[in-house]
Design a protein that fits this description.
single chain; alpha/beta; 7-stranded antiparallel sheet; 7-stranded parallel sheet; 55 helices; 31 strands; globular; disordered N terminus
Length: 1444
């Protein structure tokens, strides 16, 4: 076992068993009370078709009473959920006469599944009548005061979850009546209702329809309709009563928090907001909440934050009926109209007392204080009267206990008429640069301990949005919170590692180290530049700090030197005395910042880094490798001007100067430090009026016809498209268009070869209705054209490209499937195309061909190519380079081009260099051409002189030649003789004009030659601006704006540079997004809005989204933002939920069919391409193994299963040793290391496997290291021939219960997949059963076929059901270890004998010792693993969250 020198002694202590916060395998499989109950009643081994009968005694006494005694503890509920109680017992056994306890248990366990992010509503889909009955009972019980508040809170949770799942038809059907126009029966007066009904014509119509529906109903239906229209009103009155009830209980506070979450959710989507907002405003929910004792209790900070969010949605500037977003001017005009109404009533009825109010300008009466002073003169009765005249509610039913006294009515008036900030103004005023106050703000710190038990005051990313501005505001707030969360986490981690202490001098020192931080002396302020005109803060504040690198290793020093201009660093003041004071006080009331001694945090941007001589370090690598390198640096910074101004104002008032106390600089790594430019981009969009493309607008918001943005419904559909090399032959064409009629064009009468031009002769496309529809028609399938589509197919002869092999176009060789062709045809047309690509189905090839077709069919259009990662973008870009696309039209922005395995350099600046290289090469050709035709002069001096040469010599010569060609009397010999460029093409393949060619063939060759020459001069003409422009920046921008037609970048780069790129006047027509399901929704959106509108409209014509929502979602660090706020939502997954038509690729070509079967259950129609069933490499067995895939059960190793040395850093030594031994075995058989990947489900396990590999394999030539050791999350989008997978967990399933991760894990291998894990943990998991039934149909001990080397010649199909040759079963980790050890010793002796060497001494074989029982158990400690360059945050991996 490796010595693991990095291990801290405390790690092993922390790794010991501790009381589990969540159910373990023992709870689900052992002798626990619930497990035994499940085995008796619903987890029987009898036939699955047996109908479940629920016994009320079992529900009440053995489940309900036990839960009630436990206080409905979440752990107990998780045990029941894990035992499949809902899906296997409660719901199958539900009927209308089920007991209330039965209903409550279903609601409880449904909410548990929601908290665990497990699929839930699908269980209820097959029994809609019973579900409707269940839902009605939940509604009734939620109003039942005899139930405890705890139970009513659980029922409210069920309803909240239902309203978050309106994409499910059965759920939507039950929820819609609760928020319909019928709830207006509860408005305070008929007059107010009449006023509302006159505001839009369709309102009166809807109201009458609701009345008719009620009148025509039977008594049972009428009772249900009365419940539905009164439910929300009654629930809100109960909430208002609870706000004022004394004494307050924690249960009451939690219920009120959940209710505010519920109504905020209702107001945040237009279909649920439309009528609800009117009712809630009529009930004065905001004034009642603001004045309530509960809200003003200092312990209820969460409720106060929720109030602010609710107020935001109540007063959001949108037309509740039409969904039209008000501009800031329109919003202010409506506010003034309300004030005008108040003034008219004041003048008419209270002229003597309110004359000043009536005659004042609006700005002087719309502030709360001013308006209150003007209304103070009214008596209580007069105040009541003016409220009534304004059609505002003046009282509540007696049971509510809310007294509409003077204080309450005054608050109603102020709340109604005060001027509020718009969401744009709120976004503008939010700082995007963190300070100690914003980082350790209670509302943000609260998210650290989120476990789903209480709500949060955060906006949520939902199925639908009120407007584009609403989406951008939510995204801005959430992205800012997520960024600040990560920054705070980094600062806290750094300070803990540095271990602040008080030195003898009384100053703060640091006993520890961190590679991400350096102690510094206070910054020197170099310059404070005065404010710009119209601003009140300095335009620039420059500062300088000194850095001492003497204690740093070379790698860390190089990382500090690599900081670039505009990178953000954090300046922190740490005071160890404050830390000591905090620990001496009450630790519960002390903030985390005080506990660590963090007193100040300021943000700065790097301006430049200087060496000790004051020289700027522009190239860190060159400087670092130089001989005169220094160990000190001076870093010049730009401070935050706004905070500097506020800091100086505090200093002027006698407060300490925060910059005097700064003693630490903290840097952050790579992508996570891009928060500032990304937040600036989102805020700029939030404050702007930039629209989405009109054809996409409604679908983006979630309204209208789901198919309305697809090409068949757009008026600009291209009727004729040249598909060039998309189809390989006529049979391919016909097979690719099943169900469609293919007619040869008029010029041909039979099948013919490519290229094919397809002309659609369908009916004319439907015009998109100009009338905005905010009703989502999800119940109906998207419109389908009734007629069979017919295509007229024609062809043409491609022009001769030229005589050189390099001139020949690069053609597609992929035989696309019918589904792939459908995706290519849709993507080539205008509109929205959503392509779902299961693993191995070739979605990258599809995206590449779409880009190729657009490039050639629409030569004036430009395409933006976006992917989540540099790696994915590089794969896509490398395939584009391999097609017939001119490299001068390709541009790669960002830094990923460094990894491109292509000959060209496609970075922005690299493209400038590439253009100049092309120039030099072609100028040499120009000189050769001039010499060949005898033209004197230096024509190849520049692109400009080459242009003159072309116009003076080349074009006239060609014109003279074409005159001979056009003479019908000229023969082939005459044309060959007249050809002016024989000498120039003397180095082309000869003969240039074959003797057997007829006249037309000779002309074709000549035109091809001239096409080669013309391209040369055309490219030189494109290069000419680079000879004139002097600055690199100007050259790069010219390239972006004028030359590039395919521009590739990551979604992060697009978000960072959005404003800069748009300001250049950059315009594009198409967006193709790869890995769209892994990109957050805001980063999906920004590429759609990276240009300024033309004539008020966006030029965008196509959006192609490729992805797979059944694989991993975007990585979000914080559980609160990931689950509660749904920040992990992508636009791709939301469009799928909305019912937008998708094209699903349905044939995989990656894995053996047997391995593909492990994940095909996730994709019902996924088949296999012929080559994975026919090619030999997919048919032969894996050398040394009986099976091509196997799950291997690994029991406790030396008394341990999983351990957790530090939180979320989960490791399993037995599995790690097994995985490494398996790798060693494969290497001894001759498997190439590059064809083996080792994957783990946790970052801690990855670190442990790498540690063992480093000890056992890295320095041993016969083993070496595998291609990669990484986590499943990091390996999405990748593949290898053989994969060894460690599942790690032994107490419970953990995050692998998210079947998206399981899908990724099982779909990475092509030929061999070997999984090590704990059988009893995973086979009991309901969600994973489809895969594990297949895995566990084979033995769970590794079965080897010994005595053969890689590659094998055995055919797997021939061994089906038979024993493998020399079959051997590995009983344990030690058994496999001993087996591998013996093989290794034999291999070493064999190699030494071949080389004529003597046997080694005993000591030199130390590292070849087998795994032994007496090995000391060692684990890698995450806290000591900081030097690991690949160390990631646990939350970015599959590490589990702390549970209650």
């Amino acid at each position: 076992m490796p010595t693991a020198k990095r291990l801290k002694s405390s790690a092993k202590a922390r790794a010991r068993d501790k009381p589990p916060a969540r159910p373990t395998a023992a709870d689900l499989e052992g002798e626990s009370e619930f497990a035994q109950l499940a085995k008796r009643h619903w987890l029987k081994t009898t036939s699955k078709s047996t109908r479940v009968k629920v016994k009320n005694d079992v529900v009440k006494k053995e489940i309900w009473d036990v839960l009630e005694k436990d206080g409905f503890g979440y752990r107990s509920l998780l045990v029941l959920e894990g035992l499949q109680t809902l899906e296997s017992y409660l719901w199958p056994g539900y009927s209308e006469d089920a007991s209330n306890f039965h209903v409550l248990l279903i609601a409880l366990l449904t909410h548990v599944k929601a908290r665990e992010r497990l699929e839930t509503w699908g269980l209820f889909e097959d029994r809609p009548a019973e579900f409707s009955s269940l839902f009605s009972r939940v509604l009734s019980m939620s109003l039942d005061h005899t139930l405890s508040l705890t139970l009513r809170t659980h029922l409210l949770n069920f309803i909240i979850f239902a309203f978050q799942s309106l994409d499910w038809t059965s759920v939507r059907k039950e929820c819609a009546p609760l928020v319909s126009i019928a709830i207006w029966h509860n408005l305070s007066s008929d007059a107010k209702r009449e006023t509302k009904l006159t505001q839009a014509p369709q309102l009166r119509k809807s109201w009458k329809a609701a009345g008719k529906r009620y009148e025509s109903a039977d008594d049972t239906t009428k009772a249900r309709l009365r419940l539905e229209r009164a439910w929300l009103y009654t629930l809100t009155l109960n909430f208002l009563r609870m706000l004022y009830v004394e004494p307050r209980t924690n249960e009451a506070v939690l219920y009120c928090e959940r209710f505010v979450e519920f109504v905020s959710d209702l107001l945040s989507q237009l279909p649920t907001r439309r009528y609800v907002n009117t009712l809630l405003q009529d009930l004065h929910i905001l004034p009642a909440l603001r004045l309530s004792p509960m809200l003003n209790d200092e312990t209820n900070a969460l409720l106060r934050d929720q109030y602010a969010l609710l107020a935001h949605y109540v007063h959001f500037t949108i037309d509740d009926q039409t969904g039209a977003q008000y501009s800031r001017t329109e919003a202010y005009d409506r506010h003034c109209a309300e004030l005008g109404k108040l003034q008219r009533i004041a003048l008419r009825h209270f002229k003597e007392k309110l004359t000043v109010l009536a005659l004042s300008n609006y700005a002087s009466i719309d502030r709360r204080g001013d308006l209150e002073n003007l209304l103070e003169v009214l008596t209580d009765d007069e105040l009541m009267k003016i409220v009534s005249l304004l059609e505002l509610r003046t009282g509540y039913p007696e049971s509510v206990n809310v007294i509409a006294d003077r204080r309450f009515l005054m608050e109603v008036m102020l709340s109604t008429f005060e001027k509020r900030k718009t969401f744009q103004e709120t976004a503008r005023d939010l700082s995007i640069l963190p300070t100690e106050d914003s980082l350790f703000d209670e509302s943000l710190v609260r998210t650290d301990n989120y476990d789903g038990s209480r709500p949060l005051a955060l906006p949520k990313l939902k199925l639908q949005y009120l407007s584009v501005g609403d989406f951008l505001w939510r995204a801005f707030v959430l992205y800012r919170c997520e960024s600040f969360y990560g920054i705070r986490k980094d600062i806290v981690d750094v300070v803990r590692r540095l271990r602040p202490e008080i030195r003898l001098s009384g100053e703060t020192g640091f006993a520890g180290t961190s590679k991400m931080a350096l102690p510094i002396s206070r910054p020197s302020i170099l310059e404070v530049v005065p404010p710009l005109v119209g601003e009140d803060k300095p335009s620039v504040v420059r500062a300088e700090i000194s850095l001492d690198f003497r204690r740093l290793g070379d790698r860390i020093r190089r990382e500090w030197d690599s900081l670039r201009p505009d990178d953000v660093v954090l300046l922190v003041a740490v005071d160890a005395t404050a830390q000591t004071a905090a620990t001496n006080g009450n630790s519960n009331s002390v903030s985390e910042a005080n506990k660590l001694g963090i007193i100040t945090v300021r943000t700065a941007e790097v301006a430049q880094i200087l060496d000790d001589k004051g020289k700027s370090i522009r190239d860190p690598s060159a400087y670092f490798n130089g001989t005169n390198r220094s160990s000190t640096r001076r870093m010049q910074l730009r401070l935050d001007p706004k905070m500097h101004k506020e800091d100086m104002e505090r200093v002027s008032k006698g407060r300490p100067d925060v910059y005097e106390r700064i003693n630490l600089i903290v840097r952050r790594s790579g992508r996570e430090n891009n928060f500032k430019p990304v937040l600036e981009s989102i805020r700029t969009l939030t404050l702007s009026e930039i629209p989405l493309a009109s054809w996409l607008h409604e679908n983006f918001l979630g309204y209208g016809n789901p198919a309305g943005a697809t090409y068949k419904h757009l008026s600009n559909r291209a009727s004729e498209v040249d598909f060039r090399d998309t189809f390989l032959d006529w049979q391919h064409l016909v097979a690719s268009l099943p169900g469609k009629t293919i007619e040869p064009g008029s010029e041909v009468n039979s099948s013919f070869g490519p290229p094919y031009v397809l002309e659609s002769i369908d009916k004319p496309p439907e015009e998109v209705s100009s009338k905005a529809s905010k009703k989502r028609r999800r119940d109906a399938e998207p419109d389908i054209l009734a007629e069979i589509e017919t295509y007229k197919v024609s062809t043409y002869k491609p022009p001769n490209p030229g005589p050189y092999p390099v001139d020949s176009p690069k053609l597609n060789s992929v035989r696309f499937t019918a589904a792939q062709i459908e995706a290519i045809m849709s993507g080539t047309q205008p509109g929205l195309t959503v392509i779902v690509g299961p693993p191995g189905t070739g979605k990258t090839d599809v995206a590449t061909q779409i880009i190729n077709n657009i490039y050639h069919n629409f030569p004036k259009q430009r395409t933006l190519l976006i992917a989540h990662s540099n790696q994915a973008l590089n794969q896509l870009f490398a395939k584009i380079v391999a097609l017939d696309i001119d490299e001068r039209h390709l541009l790669r922005l960002g830094h990923g081009e460094e990894e491109l395995d292509t000959e060209g350099n496609f970075s922005k600046h690299g493209r400038v260099e590439s253009f100049l290289e092309i120039r030099d090469r072609y100028l040499l050709e120009v000189n050769r051409l001039a010499a060949s035709i005898g033209a004197p002069g230096a024509h190849g001096n520049s692109a400009e002189t080459a242009g003159y040469f072309n116009s003076v010599y080349v074009q006239p010569a060609w014109k003279k030649f074409t005159e001979i060609v056009n003479d019908n009397g000229s023969s082939a010999g005459d044309i060959i003789q007249a050809f002016p460029f024989h000498n120039f093409f003397s180095n082309a393949p000869q003969p240039l004009f074959p003797a057997e060619d007829d006249r037309s063939a000779v002309v074709d060759v000549a035109e091809g030659c001239y096409r080669h020459i013309s391209k040369m001069f055309s490219e030189l003409e494109d290069v000419q601006p680079f000879e004139i422009l002097r600055r690199d920046r100007d050259k790069a921008n010219y390239l972006l704006i004028n030359e590039a037609r395919i521009i590739a970048m990551t979604s992060t780069h697009a978000a960072m540079r959005r404003s800069e790129i748009a300001s250049l006047g950059f315009h594009y027509d198409n967006v193709v997004m790869e890995e769209a399901a892994q990109i957050t929704e805001i980063e999906n959106f920004i590429p759609l809005a990276m240009q300024k509108p033309k004539n008020g409209q966006m030029a965008l014509q196509r959006v192609v989204l490729c992805g797979d929502h059944y694989q991993n979602s975007p990585v979000i660090q914080s559980l609160a933002f990931r689950h509660y706020a749904n920040l992990e939502q992508s636009l791709f997954s939301r469009l799928v939920r909305l019912g937008i038509p998708v094209i699903t690729l349905d044939q995989q070509g990656r894995a053996r069919p047997s391995i593909a079967a492990l994940y095909q259950w996730r994709y019902p129609n996924l088949g296999n391409l012929p080559h994975v069933e026919g090619l030999p490499e997919f048919q032969v067995a894996n050398a040394g193994f009986k099976y091509d895939y196997q799950f291997i059960n690994v029991p406790d190793y030396k008394g341990h299963g999983e351990v957790e040395p530090t939180p979320h850093f989960i490791q399993n030594l037995g599995e790690a040793e097994y995985a490494v031994a398996l790798y060693q075995y494969m290497r001894l058989l001759g498997y190439p290391a590059s064809k083996i990947s080792i994957l783990t489900t946790y970052a801690g396990q990855r670190a442990l496997v790498k540690d063992i590999l480093a000890f056992r394999c890295e320095n041993e030539a016969i083993f070496g290291m595998p291609k990669i050791v990484t986590t499943v999350d990091k390996y999405q989008g990748e593949q290898n021939d053989y994969v060894i997978l460690s599942l790690t967990r032994t107490s419970r399933v953990g995050y692998l219960r998210d079947i998206r991760r399981l899908t990724v894990a099982l779909s990475r291998a092509r030929f061999g997949l070997y999984i090590v894990g704990r059988r009893e943990v995973f086979e009991a998991c309901y969600e994973l059963r489809s895969a594990f039934e297949l895995l566990l149909s084979r033995p769970d001990k590794l079965v080897l076929s010994t005595g053969e080397m890689w590659p094998s010649s055995r055919i797997l199909a021939e061994e089906d059901g038979k024993a493998a040759p020399n079959e051997a079963v590995m009983e344990s980790v030690e058994h496999l270890g001993q087996f591998v050890y013996e093989m290794t010793v034999a291999k070493v002796k064999q190699l030494r004998a071949q080389q004529g060497l003597l046997d080694e001494e005993e000591g030199s074989e130390a590292k070849l010792q087998p795994i032994r029982e007496e090995d000391d158990v060692q684990y890698v400690d995450a806290a000591s693993d900081e030097e690991d360059e690949e160390q990631e945050e646990p939350a970015q991996e599959l590490g589990d969250i702390p549970e209650e």
